[in-house]
Amino acid sequence: MPELPSTVVSPETDSVVVVEGASDRAALLRLAERRGRNLAAEGVAVVPIGGAHALPRFLASLGAGAHRLKLVGLCDAGEADDFRRALGPSAACYVCDPDLEHELIRALGAARVEQIADTQGELHSFRTLQKQPAQRARTLEQQLRVFLGNRKIRYAPLLVDALDLASVPRPLEELLAAVGARPA
Protein backbone atom coordinates (compact mmCIF):
# COMPACT_ATOMS: atom_id res chain seq x y z
CA MET A 1 0.00 0.00 0.00
CA PRO A 2 1.48 3.37 -0.93
CA GLU A 3 1.89 6.17 1.58
CA LEU A 4 -1.12 8.36 2.20
CA PRO A 5 -1.15 11.49 0.03
CA SER A 6 -0.86 13.74 3.06
CA THR A 7 2.58 12.25 3.73
CA VAL A 8 3.85 12.55 0.14
CA VAL A 9 2.08 15.66 -1.11
CA SER A 10 3.05 18.67 0.97
CA PRO A 11 1.94 22.29 0.58
CA GLU A 12 5.24 22.85 -1.30
CA THR A 13 4.33 20.22 -3.88
CA ASP A 14 3.45 21.61 -7.30
CA SER A 15 3.53 18.39 -9.33
CA VAL A 16 2.71 14.78 -8.57
CA VAL A 17 4.25 12.08 -10.73
CA VAL A 18 2.17 8.96 -10.30
CA VAL A 19 4.09 5.75 -10.98
CA GLU A 20 2.94 2.16 -10.75
CA GLY A 21 5.54 0.89 -8.33
CA ALA A 22 8.60 1.44 -6.20
CA SER A 23 11.02 0.42 -8.96
CA ASP A 24 9.64 3.13 -11.25
CA ARG A 25 10.07 5.67 -8.45
CA ALA A 26 13.62 4.49 -7.72
CA ALA A 27 14.62 4.73 -11.39
CA LEU A 28 13.11 8.18 -11.85
CA LEU A 29 14.63 9.63 -8.69
CA ARG A 30 18.05 8.17 -9.52
CA LEU A 31 17.93 9.59 -13.03
CA ALA A 32 16.99 13.00 -11.66
CA GLU A 33 19.96 12.82 -9.26
CA ARG A 34 22.27 11.92 -12.15
CA ARG A 35 20.95 14.99 -13.96
CA GLY A 36 21.77 17.10 -10.88
CA ARG A 37 18.16 17.55 -9.87
CA ASN A 38 16.36 17.19 -6.56
CA LEU A 39 12.72 16.64 -7.48
CA ALA A 40 11.40 17.18 -3.95
CA ALA A 41 13.16 20.56 -3.77
CA GLU A 42 11.61 21.40 -7.14
CA GLY A 43 8.13 20.72 -5.77
CA VAL A 44 7.74 17.31 -7.40
CA ALA A 45 6.44 14.29 -5.48
CA VAL A 46 6.98 10.91 -7.12
CA VAL A 47 4.33 8.56 -5.76
CA PRO A 48 4.23 4.79 -6.28
CA ILE A 49 0.61 3.70 -6.08
CA GLY A 50 1.00 -0.08 -6.07
CA GLY A 51 -0.30 -0.72 -9.59
CA ALA A 52 -2.54 0.97 -12.11
CA HIS A 53 -5.70 -0.39 -10.47
CA ALA A 54 -4.98 1.85 -7.46
CA LEU A 55 -4.86 5.10 -9.45
CA PRO A 56 -8.52 6.17 -9.12
CA ARG A 57 -8.43 5.57 -5.35
CA PHE A 58 -5.15 7.50 -5.04
CA LEU A 59 -6.50 10.44 -7.02
CA ALA A 60 -9.68 10.50 -4.95
CA SER A 61 -7.59 10.54 -1.77
CA LEU A 62 -5.93 13.79 -2.87
CA GLY A 63 -9.25 15.47 -2.21
CA ALA A 64 -9.92 19.15 -2.80
CA GLY A 65 -6.22 20.01 -3.06
CA ALA A 66 -5.82 18.03 -6.26
CA HIS A 67 -6.91 20.96 -8.44
CA ARG A 68 -3.72 22.90 -7.63
CA LEU A 69 -1.41 20.05 -8.62
CA LYS A 70 0.10 19.25 -11.98
CA LEU A 71 -0.56 15.52 -12.40
CA VAL A 72 1.80 13.41 -14.49
CA GLY A 73 1.83 9.65 -15.01
CA LEU A 74 4.50 7.08 -15.86
CA CYS A 75 3.18 3.65 -16.70
CA ASP A 76 3.64 0.48 -18.72
CA ALA A 77 2.06 0.26 -22.17
CA GLY A 78 -0.56 -2.20 -20.93
CA GLU A 79 -1.78 0.32 -18.35
CA ALA A 80 -1.70 3.44 -20.53
CA ASP A 81 -5.43 3.60 -21.28
CA ASP A 82 -6.31 3.22 -17.58
CA PHE A 83 -3.78 5.89 -16.59
CA ARG A 84 -4.94 8.36 -19.23
CA ARG A 85 -8.59 7.82 -18.34
CA ALA A 86 -7.99 8.26 -14.60
CA LEU A 87 -5.61 11.22 -14.92
CA GLY A 88 -7.83 13.04 -17.40
CA PRO A 89 -7.10 14.92 -20.60
CA SER A 90 -5.09 17.72 -19.01
CA ALA A 91 -2.49 15.39 -17.46
CA ALA A 92 0.58 14.12 -19.28
CA CYS A 93 1.13 10.39 -19.33
CA TYR A 94 4.49 8.91 -20.31
CA VAL A 95 4.39 5.30 -21.43
CA CYS A 96 7.13 2.68 -21.23
CA ASP A 97 6.93 0.10 -24.02
CA PRO A 98 6.20 -2.50 -22.90
CA ASP A 99 7.55 -1.61 -19.43
CA LEU A 100 10.33 0.30 -17.72
CA GLU A 101 12.58 -2.73 -17.39
CA HIS A 102 12.45 -3.34 -21.12
CA GLU A 103 13.15 0.33 -21.83
CA LEU A 104 16.25 0.15 -19.63
CA ILE A 105 17.42 -3.17 -21.11
CA ARG A 106 17.00 -1.75 -24.61
CA ALA A 107 18.93 1.43 -23.71
CA LEU A 108 21.78 -0.47 -22.05
CA GLY A 109 21.93 -3.57 -24.21
CA ALA A 110 21.52 -7.10 -22.90
CA ALA A 111 25.26 -7.66 -22.49
CA ARG A 112 25.57 -4.65 -20.16
CA VAL A 113 22.61 -5.83 -18.08
CA GLU A 114 24.27 -9.24 -17.76
CA GLN A 115 27.45 -7.48 -16.56
CA ILE A 116 25.42 -5.66 -13.93
CA ALA A 117 23.91 -8.96 -12.78
CA ASP A 118 27.46 -10.34 -12.60
CA THR A 119 28.63 -7.43 -10.42
CA GLN A 120 25.70 -8.22 -8.11
CA GLY A 121 26.81 -11.86 -7.87
CA GLU A 122 23.69 -13.05 -9.67
CA LEU A 123 24.91 -14.08 -13.11
CA HIS A 124 24.80 -17.75 -12.05
CA SER A 125 21.15 -17.30 -11.03
CA PHE A 126 20.42 -15.74 -14.40
CA ARG A 127 22.13 -18.62 -16.22
CA THR A 128 20.04 -21.07 -14.18
CA LEU A 129 16.87 -19.22 -15.18
CA GLN A 130 17.92 -19.37 -18.86
CA LYS A 131 18.09 -23.18 -18.66
CA GLN A 132 14.47 -23.53 -17.55
CA PRO A 133 12.26 -25.02 -20.27
CA ALA A 134 9.87 -22.04 -20.22
CA GLN A 135 12.77 -19.65 -20.85
CA ARG A 136 14.64 -21.44 -23.63
CA ALA A 137 12.52 -20.10 -26.49
CA ARG A 138 12.59 -16.53 -25.21
CA THR A 139 15.01 -13.88 -26.40
CA LEU A 140 17.84 -12.78 -24.13
CA GLU A 141 16.00 -9.51 -23.48
CA GLN A 142 12.83 -11.39 -22.48
CA GLN A 143 14.84 -13.62 -20.16
CA LEU A 144 16.40 -10.57 -18.54
CA ARG A 145 12.95 -9.05 -17.95
CA VAL A 146 11.87 -12.26 -16.20
CA PHE A 147 15.08 -12.26 -14.17
CA LEU A 148 14.56 -8.66 -13.09
CA GLY A 149 10.93 -9.35 -12.16
CA ASN A 150 11.30 -9.73 -8.39
CA ARG A 151 14.60 -7.81 -8.31
CA LYS A 152 13.50 -4.66 -10.09
CA ILE A 153 13.39 -2.37 -7.05
CA ARG A 154 17.04 -3.16 -6.33
CA TYR A 155 18.13 -3.15 -9.98
CA ALA A 156 16.31 -0.01 -11.15
CA PRO A 157 18.88 2.45 -9.76
CA LEU A 158 21.75 0.16 -10.83
CA LEU A 159 20.48 0.13 -14.41
CA VAL A 160 19.96 3.90 -14.38
CA ASP A 161 23.49 4.38 -13.02
CA ALA A 162 24.83 2.40 -15.98
CA LEU A 163 22.94 4.48 -18.57
CA ASP A 164 24.74 6.78 -20.95
CA LEU A 165 22.88 10.03 -20.28
CA ALA A 166 22.65 10.54 -24.04
CA SER A 167 20.65 7.29 -24.31
CA VAL A 168 18.02 7.69 -21.60
CA PRO A 169 14.70 6.02 -22.52
CA ARG A 170 12.38 8.61 -24.02
CA PRO A 171 9.52 8.30 -21.47
CA LEU A 172 11.91 9.08 -18.60
CA GLU A 173 13.65 11.89 -20.44
CA GLU A 174 10.38 13.55 -21.47
CA LEU A 175 8.85 13.18 -18.02
CA LEU A 176 11.82 14.84 -16.32
CA ALA A 177 11.70 17.67 -18.86
CA ALA A 178 8.01 18.20 -18.09
CA VAL A 179 8.20 18.57 -14.29
CA GLY A 180 9.94 20.65 -11.68
CA ALA A 181 12.91 22.90 -12.29
CA ARG A 182 11.45 25.60 -10.06
CA PRO A 183 13.42 28.84 -10.13
CA ALA A 184 15.84 29.17 -7.19
In short:
48% of the residues lie in helices and 12% in strands. The chain has helices at residues 5-8, 22-34, 55-61, 80-87, 100-108, 110-119, 123-131, 140-148, 152-162, 170-178, and strands at residues 15-19, 44-48, 70-76, 92-96.
Please explain how this structure is put together.
By secondary structure, the chain is of the alpha/beta class. The chain has two domains: 5-98 and 165-178, 3-Layer(aba) Sandwich (Dna Topoisomerase Vi A Subunit, Chain: A, domain 2); 101-162, no CATH class. Helix content is 48%, strand content 12%. It has ten helices and four strands; from the N terminus they run H-E-H-E-H-E-H-E-H-H-H-H-H-H. It has a four-stranded parallel sheet, with helices on both faces. Helix 2 packs parallel to helix 9, helix 5 crosses helix 8 (140-148) and helix 7 (123-131) packs across helix 8. The longest helix has 13 residues, at 22-34. The model has no long low-confidence stretch (mean pLDDT 92).
